[in-house]
Every structure is written in C-alpha cells, then in structure tokens.
Amino acid sequence: MSLTAVAPARDRSALALIAAGILWGTGGLAGSMLAAAAHLHPLSVAAYRLLLGGGLSVVFLGASGGLRALPRTGQAVRRVLAAGALLGIYQASYFAAVRSTSVSVATMVTIGVVPVAVAVGTAIRTRRLPGAATLLAIAAAVAGVVLLTWSPGGAAGGWGLVAGVGFALLAGIGFAALTLVTANPVEGLDPLRTTAFGMLTGGVLLCPAALALGMALPADPGALAIALYFGAVPTALAYTAYFRGLRGAPPVFAALAALLEPLTSAVLAAVVLGDRLGVAGWCGAALLVGALAVSYRR
Length: 298
Fold this sequence. Notes:
Layout: H1 3-38, H2 42-64, H3 74-100, H4 103-126, H5 132-149, H6 158-181, H7 191-213, H8 221-245, H9 251-257, H10 260-272, H11 278-297
C-alpha cells in the first residue's frame, strides 16, 4: 500500500478517535442531568447508558440491514462478551469511584491511568519499550488531566479516598483493556456491531444491581429527551467512532484521544454551567492538546 493511501486512512482514524473523545465529554453533563431529572443512582445511569446506546445501535443496524449474516464464530462471540464485560466494569467502577470520592478525583485517576496502562500493555505484547516521544506525550497528558480536574477540597478522605482511587484504577485498567482487546478486527464484526452488542451485554450485566437501586424513568418529555441523547450521541455514536478509529491508529494514540473527554466536560461546564476553569485548568487543556499532537505526529 502506498504512503498516499496510508496517510488518509490514518487521518480518518485519528479524526474518529478525536470525535469520540469530544462526544464522550458531552456525556458527563447529560448523565448528571439525567440523574437529577429522574433521581437515579449513578449505577442505574451507567446501566441506562449502555442499554440505550446498545438498543439504538441495534435499531440502526436493523434499519440498515446490518443484522443480516451476523457472524456466529467463536471469535466473534468472545469479542462481544469481552467488550460487554469490560464496558460494564469500566462504567460500574467509574461511578463507584465517583460515589466514594468525587467526580474530579475519579475522572483524574480513571482517565489518567488509561494511556499509561495501554502503553504498558502494548510494550508487554510487542516486547518493545515505548519511544521517548510517546513517553513524553503520556507524561504531558497525565499532567494535563491533573491540572484540569484536580480539586482536593472536594474529595473524601480516609478509606473513602482509598476506595475511590481503587475503583478509579480498576475503571482505567478496564478501559485500557477494552482498547487493547478491540484493536484487532474480527471478521464480520464491524465497529457498529461491536458497539451494539457489546453495550447490550454490558448493560445486561449491570441490570441486577441497577434494578435493586431503582431504574424508573418519569414520564417527562425533558427527562426522556435527555435519556435519548445520552444513549445516542455520547454512547452509541461515540463508541462506534472509537472502535472504528482503533482499526487504523495505534492504541496509545486512541488512549490519549480519550483524554479529550475531561477537556470537553470542563469547557462545557465553563460555558453552560458558568464554572471557572482557571489558569491551571487552561494549562492542563494545553498540555492535553499538545500531547495528542505529539502522539499523532509520531
């Protein structure tokens, strides 16, 4: 394959991953609005996110003929089960971390550990250490997340902080594992199919705990509209873009692109909710963007 053909494919993959990170950033605001409007436990919000995202993706597949000739190989079944389990672990652990400590600390630890875990996993799999530029990009990205999201005054202390950090580490490792596991395509299982059935599997796994905590949605048009957006845009569309981008970009770049989620959330909070980002926050945002640019150049 010529370099002229490789470059556009790489550009499309990079744009898909960047779009996924930005769309995920709108999910934080949508999820908090849904929890407030429907009085839902965070774990129930996570279950709704996966069930709605997977359900909408399956509907789209049915309308577009994507449900025909579904792969029934053992490899395809294992990929869907793995994606569903890792999505469920990621969502449940993240919201458990939020409940134990704070949104800022949970986000910082979860998102910050993802590129590190992906780099370590890639090095183990390829038996080759990351390059200096990759390590620099990861360090800058982690520093950017710290500056962007850290707020010590809002965090719990003692065992609550220990538990929260532990759950956040589990969430980050789960997402890193998802990135590494789904990087290699499976025949007949395109990104949309992986998204649809992986999310449904993850949502079903979370249902027992979510039902015990309450999953009733009020018959309110506003709450239903938020739920629809939550399932469609930052979930179904974003994960489809992420899985599509993984086919043509290195896993480390994909993990760094995911760091656009807290950046987008912080900017939206500043614009929509009137939160102040501050000098440290803007410095963190610049570090994140710079780290992504360095990784893309590599």
